[in-house]
Amino acid sequence: RDALDLTRPLDTLSVMIAVRASIERAVSADLATASAFRSGFWDVLRIGGDLAEGNGETRTPAWVEHVLHENLLNPTFRKRVRARVEERFSTAVEEFRGDLELLRAHVREAGWSDLFVIVDSLTHLQGVSDNAAEVERSAEEFFAREVASLDLPVHTLWTVPAFLLSRAPLTGLRVLPNVMIRTPEGVLVEEGLNALRDIVQRRVPLGMLPGLANTTHRDLAFDRLTAAWSGNLREVIRLLRTLILRAGSPRALERTVAEMTEERHLLVGREERHLLRRVHEEHRLPDEDPRRVGELLTAGLVLAYRGDREWYDIHPAMPDLLAEPSRV
Q1: Integer CA distances (angstroms), 73 to 130, 138, 272, 280, in order
Q2: What does the longest C-alpha to C-alpha distance in the chain come to?
Q3: Alpha-helix runs per DSSP H in the chain
Q4: I want to staple 179 with a disulfide (CB 3.0 to 4.6 A). Which of 229, 231, 233, 249 is the partner?
Q5: Whether residue 50 has pLDDT greater than 70
Q6: Are 293 and 302 in contact (CB under 8 A)?
Q7: What pLDDT, in 10s, does the model give residues 265-305?
Q8: How many other C-beta atoms can be found within 10 angstroms of the C-beta atom of residue 144?
Q9: Structure pTM?
């Protein structure tokens, strides 16, 4: 997120610059000599002359930060660099791969077990009103063709925007599943419920949680939580944090659950309600309107689970809303 403008269409060169500079920055934090070797990728781009310090052979951490900053915020910089490599793009890709191989060898010599790259935050890729369709097309093209053509020599995990999950041409995409606490038929899964209860009790002293401090009422309070739980660990942590901040407040548990439910309801209009109903009935992502389906996934209104297969359902607080008129 600090190296790419996620409101603009994805382009391969900007991604390579972001990945290359980010790896160098991360490695340099632990290895003082990380920038000592020659970089064929920076040489092809001839970035050194654009920046205040450094060239393809000697770089400082400040130089790397400057590259990241310019790639993120300076369209003139991106245009100038893109023009330089337009006829040498395949060479730039080869040098990019070569740089990663050198970095991998360097960190292994320094005692690291290996180099593993996570290209994070691309889940937040989303255009604005005048370029949303262009951003979506660029993401589909990038992940359908460009990622494979880069053929990176290190193990790489790419995050993807949720709207790509229902695009038929893309295969191999996976969603991190939530803890399964209900089957597709709505039957409670005790193993999943116990796992979430264990997380609550291990992370936070029960005496700090309103409604859970008194043993007599603890099972009832857990039952109330269970009714609101989706199995989403991020949501569980948010709920716990809010309850801790409200310790001592009357009916803190009921109020917190009610507020989180209301937040979700406010996101649902007529079209969303139609899509949610399809997900709830079919337990898969609809093929229609991938952008809106992606928004529902990102908002936690549609959730992925994995038992003997991957399946989807709506948040357990949502079914009653499906029969109600739209609120927006």
Answers
A1: 19, 19, 34, 42
A2: 73
A3: 12-28, 40-45, 61-73, 75-85, 89-109, 132-141, 147-150, 190-203, 215-228, 233-245, 252-265, 270-282, 290-298
A4: 231
A5: no
A6: yes
A7: 888 888 888 899 999 999 999 888 888 888 898 888 999 99
A8: 14
A9: 0.74
User: Pseudo-torsion of CA 144, 148, 149, 150, nearest 10°?
Assistant: 120
Q: In whole angstroms, what separates CA 306 from the centre of its chain? A: 19
**Hey, what's the torsion of the CAs at 96, 100, 106, 110, to 10 degrees?**
150
**Structure tokens belonging to residue 64:** 């790397």
Residues 217 and 280: their CA atoms lie apart, in Å, by: 32
pLDDT of 208: 64
Point out which residues pair with 188 in neighbouring strands.
182
Helical residues (DSSP H) of 142-289, grouped into ranges: 147-150, 190-203, 215-228, 233-245, 252-265, 270-282
Residue type, 63: W
